[in-house]
Fold these 3 entries.
Entry 1:
Amino acid sequence: VTSDVTWQDSLLVGLEGALLGCAYYLLSCRSCGLAVGFILYSSGSDLAYLRDLFCFFKNSIICYLLGKQIIIEASKVNFPAVTLKK
């Protein structure tokens, strides 16, 4: 992750959705301040494999394709399917 992504020192707790009951740090864009993902700090066993990883919201990032030297929205890139289970 580059210096364009920041996170707050305070933990947030998920109150609904896939992160219900989880503690996490919110990742934000340094330029515009929008949330771009999270770092999961504490969770149940079903999300344990994501702890301490930088998890980005696919619709919030832009990708640079090295081979083609173009920039595209991440939503147009074929990522392996990984979902947060409820």
Note: The two ends are 27 Å apart (CA to CA).
Entry 2:
Amino acid sequence: MQRTTIFHAVTGPALLAVIFLTGLVWPSSSESRSPSPIETEEWSFEELLPSDSVITLTLQEAVMEALEHNLDIQVSRHTRDVRLTDIVFQQSQFDPTVELGGRYDRTVVPLNRPIFGLGGVTRGSIPDTFDQNETNFRLGLKQKLLTGGSYDLTFDTKRNSVAGSTSFLFNPAYASNLLFNLTQPLLRNFGPTINNIQITLAKNAADVEQLTLLNQILSVIAQVEQAYWELVFARENLKVARATLQAAEELLASNRAKVKAGIMADVEALQAQAGVANQIEQILLAQKTVLDQEDQLRVLLSKSEFNLTQTTPLVPLDPPVQHLQETPLKENLEVAFEHRPDMLQAKKNIETSNVNTRFAKNQLLPDLSFQGSLGLSGLGKNPRDDWDRLGSTDFYNMGGGLVFSYPIGNRSAQSQYQRRVLETQQSQVSLLRVRQQIILDVKEAIRQVQTSFKRTRTTQTARQLSERQLNAEQERLNLGLSTTRLVLEFQRDLRIARGRELRAILDYNQSLSRLRLVTASTLDHYHIEIQ
């Protein structure tokens, strides 16, 4: 938006005062008079600059910088990512586990009598030791199932030899076994829905952290908007202070000339000089405010201490919005109900409570489980014979049965179920409370927008009247009908009126930011998508 200046037909020093005091006003169609706009230069900030460089920044650029570098957002992102790892952790309980092992054993023990099976010996050749070698290899696979059951599949094979023995069919002997065990709950803890609950809860927790991240992003963007407009206000307020100083200096020069000409008392020049000193103080305070607001914006956009030590001025480029934006209550409420993070989190809490209640209800059932096993065996003088017998399925073992258990009274499960039911009811009430708060927030934000816009018009009128009062009093001073003190008071009043007009304009823009925050429409406003 092109900035213009507005002035009325006055003469002498009053003309210069009005030009400088009103050169920073954004034009409005509601002004009763038809001013002649002229282009003005931006007020320079050489007193604030350690160098000739500045950093220009649009509001969109400031928001994007904050999304990339703001430390609060980064902390929330890391917390969200930590929650995502919990999902994988819960899913891992259904991962199969492989077991692999091997073992070699040799047993050599002394004997004091013959052992059955050691044939081909005479009394004089009775062995006095027992020497056995055994090599064992084991391979296993086990897994928890989504149905709630678990299985264990084991294959083991071994080689056994006894020194000096001739009574065994095979020496050495090779033996293998393949065994499958299955345990499956039939009532309590049965089914994928129940056994996926921890995964579901982990996903819900990650979703909640995502909503927390979204809420943090919306909050930071609102802070960036607040800091951006406060910097705009501080810079414009400094320009107003400088314009007031310019007018005070011109008044001082005029009074000194009149004192020198003998048509004005010395005290009038002293009063004008005091007015200049007062305005210099206002400029010093305004300069400090500009620097403070620059740092407030830097801390939101930076992730390193180095950036906070920089003194290059930040120059906001976007002019504030001054036209009335439509704020229909119904549409804003619909947007808020659909996008507000606290609303979505309340719904997610209800979902989590329902999951916990469903699990607690399942725990009320008795524990009835099926347990079964099936095994195959093999034996031979070499590995091939052993595996042939194992694969023939002629040698096997099998079995199965049911195991039932139920705690008398089952008070633990009953109390947990009642607790989960109450938590579900509580989360539903919390959702209603959140909806009420959203309605209050949106209505208050809309009223603030409307009130702030009206303030821009009333403060504009007040500023225009202050200009006319200053012009009239300046004319009276030129005619000798007023005093320097009164002119200085009207200059101060005009500075205050201009500051209030600026404050109202920036408050209006901040109220628009607040409305976007309470309706969670900020991201759509800036065309931002969060991954």
Note: The chain has two domains: 12-85+200-350+424-525, 97-192+367-412.
Entry 3:
Amino acid sequence: MKLLRYALGFAPFLLLQACATTPPPPPPMAVTDLSGKTCATEPSTANAVSLTPVKKQVLHTVSTLVDANTPCLTGADGSLSNYVVYAIPASGENHTVTVGGVQEAIRTFAPTVTLLQSDGKVTRSFGEDRFALLGNTLGVQFRPLPAERFIVVQSNPGLVGESVATVETRITTTSGYAAPTAYSYGYSYTHERGADGKHERTFSHEGYINVTVQAATGKVGLPNEK
């Protein structure tokens, strides 16, 4: 009988433990130092990420996480930067490409973009002065030239470590159900409330890169496709 009372007394504790929620992990911090990484002097296109979708599409987006395992480059001045290479679809000039670093909770990948021919020769580059906020991406938009085959996205050592504060509107949505009363039927409701606040992010060597390719005619990589 004593054992039963002990078990009954312990049950509420178990229920409370079961109902407890695990707090979400903290958002990733900005990475501002790549010292210790072994970096190449030239980008390799051997493992370029394809921008051609498996299924035929007019619009295709690829998101890439740049982390500690991402290859890096050593600049002429000795600075280090992470990089990812993307393969431009066939008939590249038939596409509009939007590429850049994604704004996360407290960091943004600091991007620079360089375009290469098939032999690795640089055709043009986009520095930080060409980038603008495009949705939640600090990016640049362009149309590839016929000879351009690869996009190299590097972290920008000159921008990494800088913080930018922006005023953003956060919208909170509350939904519920009002029970019926003697004077009304029950109904569902949704309330939205917006609040402006300052938000600060730090430019980082790591984070997410988004690349969106849109075909002007046909499909991505297939300009004559209906």
Note: Helices lie at 2-19.
